[in-house]
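Quick one: co-fold with iron/sulfur cluster.
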Amino acid sequence: MDFLRPDNLLRSGYKDCVLCDVLRPGEEERCRDCSGRLDQRDRLLWEIRRERIRKTAGLLSLVYPGLGHFYSGRIVYGVFWASLLPLTLGLVLNVGSGITFGHLFLLVEAGVIWWMAYVDARRGPCEVEAPCESACPANIRVPDYIALVREGRLLEALALVHDKLPFAAFCGRACPHPCEQVCVRNEFGAPISIMAIKRYAADLGYAAGIPPSSGESGQVGGPRVAVVGAGASGLSAADTLARLGVLVTVFDGYAEPGGMMRYGAAEFRFPADALLADVTRILARGVRFRGGITFGKDVTFSSLAAEGYDAVLIAVGAREALRLPAAGGEDQGFHDALSFLVRVREHRFPRLPGRVVVIGGGNSAIDAARCALRMGAAEVTIACLESREAMPAFAWEIEAAVSEGAKFLPGTAVIRFLLKDGKVAALEAMKVERVDLDPDGKVLPRTVPGSEFEVPADTVVTAIGTRADLSFLPEGASWKSRDPEHRVFRLQFPGGEPRIAVYMCGDCVRGPGTVVEASTSGREAALNIFEDLSVEDVERARYRDNYRRRPEPQVTDCPEGRVRRRAERLSPEVARGTFDEVERRFTDRCAREESERCARCNLSL
Ligand SMILES: Cc1cc2nc3c(=O)[nH]c(=O)nc-3n(C[C@H](O)[C@H](O)[C@H](O)COP(=O)(O)OP(=O)(O)OC[C@H]3O[C@@H](n4cnc5c(N)ncnc54)[C@H](O)[C@@H]3O)c2cc1C
Ligand code: SF4
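Sure, here it is.
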């Protein structure tokens, strides 16, 4: 493993850089911390190779503790683990007075050493991670990009986000931001506004026109991959594959790319321009998009194999709406949230006077309710089984809906709908005292006897969940997980037909989730596909990423005293009457002051 020493890497032409997208006048050959520019392809290749080395190291350490450490170049650790086991066993064997409890204890200890050596070899060298980085499903280097924003280096900040997540504009606006929940600044009043800082970097970075590196996309004779579904997971996979030099074509049933980011999330939370910025950058890498093509009807596994594709990635999301058995058709005033939101987004829904009841407690329900308010509904009520605290929707979205005038009926089970002249007129409901789950995960509401009540309604929107429609898969297809987190699956077909490698990722395997989770799953799928298709390239990968290990000056001006900066918002009265974006971008001053509050917890001092 001598080639991994930084000086040897540099000598053989490899350099240390994660910010290879960035072109700064006069600094084209230098980035923030390293000696030069490195193509993103090398970084990703090394990521695949590193995972492979770690897997083999883990297996070798099962044969004998420390062996895997030697293999992966961690000699000192190898010596440590390799010597611990004989020491322990020596103690056990060097006793002439028979086996005692103490010897049994030592034997157990030997087993534990074996196991710990395996875990350590499999995990690789431990790097200091800030809590916000660990909590992020995409594992973005949050403190590093916050530091770049603080210094006004927005293109680099955006490049650092893009390294792990291509949807900086979306996740700067509508991410569940688990990073903020664990931010250490919670202990000093309030967390850093990480999401708002990301949005600031994304909006200004895109406006400045970040040039995407296309890797070696479209090499003649290189692998070709078809991605089915242009949502968060499919586009993220396409982005990563393009960085690796693969020729990618993305197919989607809708005419435009974006999936639920485009058609689900409401305009006032995520405007079309912001999506365009994220998507344009991915397509600029050389990714081809073919809209209006339904997989299973217009193209199939066999037709894609015949077109010369080496692999297919299924990323079709979970967009088939679940229906309440008692609900009627659209002519009777019943709509499912997803098709309602799609039509609103495409401006195909007429105004919506009267009383609207939305059934469900997730983000789709909240989006549908806030859209209904903007479309002129006299009264909007959200009814759901869960209590207000247990609703799956983001807490801040619930607050926004309340401030805009939506009413809530938590702990409510709909029993039946009452029709008048063939249209819905009301629904009958009961109070719920408890919600249980049966062994299959099905929801079982326990209602309070005698608590029936009626809710008047002219329109009912149901948002009770979605599932994946995988009816195009051949009978008997089986799935095998490709990663410990079960984010990517490889499909096996009975009889080995069709003759093309098929993978699945995103919401269609994990169920409805979030964009950052779907995107991470797509990135992981891309690395897995590339690993299978281009074994030699992965074997040749040489790269060491020590970007984060440089100590940097800490913030010195006592930011503990500062309060959390918040972006401006439209007032609820104004917001309710417009589809304009509710939350504004940070001003330059806010972004700088907020990023100065960050404690850079990833730096070991
Ligand atoms: C109303 C709503 C609001 C949401 N709000 C948020 C939010 O605020 N924050 C957040 O993080 N997440 C949110 N989500 C969840 C997020 O949008 C999804 O988790 C994410 O988009 C899933 O990505 P995906 O690629 O797996 O699937 P999708 O985004 O669903 O993309 C799947 C794509 O596959 C296409 N497709 C399906 N079948 C076929 C076929 N047979 N042939 C061709 N194409 C096909 C579809 O047209 C679609 O474009 C929301 C979801 C909804 C519905
Ligand atoms: S203070 Fe900064 S580095 Fe530390 S957890 Fe919060 S955002 Fe992350």
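If it helps, The CA atoms of residues 348 and 379 lie 21 Å apart.
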